[in-house]
């Protein structure tokens, strides 16, 4: 079945997560994504290594459904290769400071001179304007500057999450921007440049508390795993693990007080609304903690579920892989890859389209696996490809 983006070619100059993930989204929905990488390979292939040759989980997850062209862009011969690649493309994606694009030969003016209707998506740490525009950064920088790290952990020790949500959010925003630009091009014939940033993505995810701060000047500080704006919401220890529950709205709180045997709390002004319950969440969490401490995780989740209160276990990565709901959702897919005897377990897109679903059609590419094939598609003869190899351009 053809994907919704069948016929769209994307050149992926991205590295690590924020750049490549946007291209991964497009690839999963059918775009022909060509990962353009250095002839000797990029260091992002080697983060969190799991294969015999040291390739890592980030690269494998970000690179399914992509082809790899490895090229030394420092040689004179590489200029024609890049020109033809750009000429064949609909979209170019990268994640570098805006000032670095020209040095790579993929700034928007250069791209337009080769392909007038091309779309450029570039995401950087801080975007193309402002005093920090040329600074680099990774996911943790976005987390730290979003306000979210300040609100996570305790007042004495802020925490970041090891899950790179800022990188992934930035990649998703880039993919959305590309889709909007493709739609506009279908109407007007015009390409355009898309700019995104780690900081912008992180701030956009933190707006509940930023809007509140701007209006009320409330200056919140971290309170562990409790919620500022409802309760009881927290992570609780059971006899055999940990669970999370989140009680939002008066109807859910009424159910919770009944389960706890605390009906008088319905008339307590400390718990009259989500906001006051958040303000007094320490009292609610203490009561819930005592209740959970007498039960296994399954027992606590079962009783909460029977009362109509959302609850779930805190899972380790191993438990996620084995969880029946994850299995039922069909997110996991095993693909072959050199250096992994049992192949790699990759994860599909979490959104399903009934008629044009995303799919993992091909495993991640080895370095330069498709260079000769792509150059042949671009019109290079066998002798020209051989000459490019001899000059160590490819």
UniProtKB/TrEMBL annotation:
Record flagged with keyword S-adenosyl-L-methionine: no
Sorted UniProt keywords: Transferase
Molecular-function annotations in GO: CoA-transferase activity
RNA-binding is among the record's keywords: no
Pfam families: CoA_transf_3 (PF02515)
Domain of life: Bacteria
Gene3D superfamilies (alphabetical): Crotonobetainyl-coa:carnitine coa-transferase, domain 1, formyl-coa transferase, domain 3
Protein name: CoA transferase
Taxonomic source organism: Sphingomonas montanisoli
């Amino acid at each position: 079945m053809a994907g919704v983006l069948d016929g769209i070619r994307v050149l992926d100059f991205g590295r690590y997560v924020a750049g490549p993930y946007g291209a991964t989204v497009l690839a999963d929905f059918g775009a022909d994504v060509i990962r353009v990488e250095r002839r000797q390979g990029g260091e992002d292939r080697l983060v969190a290594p799991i294969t015999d040759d040291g390739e890592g989980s980030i690269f494998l997850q970000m690179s399914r459904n992509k082809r790899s062209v490895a090229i030394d862009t420092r040689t004179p011969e590489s200029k024609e290769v890049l020109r033809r690649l750009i000429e064949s493309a609909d979209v170019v994606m990268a994640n570098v400071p805006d000032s670095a694009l020209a040095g790579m030969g993929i700034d928007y003016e250069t791209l337009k001179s080769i392909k007038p209707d091309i779309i450029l998506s570039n995401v950087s740490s801080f975007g193309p304007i402002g005093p920090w525009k040329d600074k680099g950064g990774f996911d943790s920088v976005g987390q730290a500057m979003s306000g979210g790290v300040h609100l996570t952990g305790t007042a004495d020790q802020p925490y970041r999450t090891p899950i790179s949500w800022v990188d992934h959010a930035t990649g998703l925003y880039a993919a959305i921007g590309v889709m909007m630009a493709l739609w506009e091009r279908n109407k007007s014939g015009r390409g355009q440049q898309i700019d995104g940033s780690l900081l912008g993505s992180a701030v956009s995810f933190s707006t509940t508390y930023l809007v509140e701060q701007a209006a009320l000047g409330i200056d919140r500080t971290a309170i562990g795993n409790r919620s500022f704006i409802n309760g009881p919401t927290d992570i609780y220890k059971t006899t055999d693990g940990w669970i999370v529950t989140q009680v939002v709205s008066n109807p859910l709180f009424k159910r919770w007080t009944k389960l706890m045997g605390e009906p008088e709390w319905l008339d307590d002004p400390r718990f009259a609304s989500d906001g006051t319950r958040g303000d007094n969440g320490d009292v609610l969490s203490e009561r819930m903690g005592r209740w959970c401490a007498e039960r296994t995780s399954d027992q606590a989740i079962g009783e909460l579920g029977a009362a109509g209160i959302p609850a779930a276990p805190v899972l380790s990565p191993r438990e996620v892989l084995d969880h029946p709901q994850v299995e039922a959702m069909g997110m996991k897919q095993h693909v072959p890859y050199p250096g992994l005897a049992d192949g790699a377990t990759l994860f599909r897109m979490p959104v399903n389209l009934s008629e044009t679903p995303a799919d993992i059609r091909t495993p991640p590419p080895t370095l330069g696996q498709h260079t000769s094939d792509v150059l042949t598609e671009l019109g290079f003869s066998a002798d020209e490809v051989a000459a490019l190899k001899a000059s160590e351009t490819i």
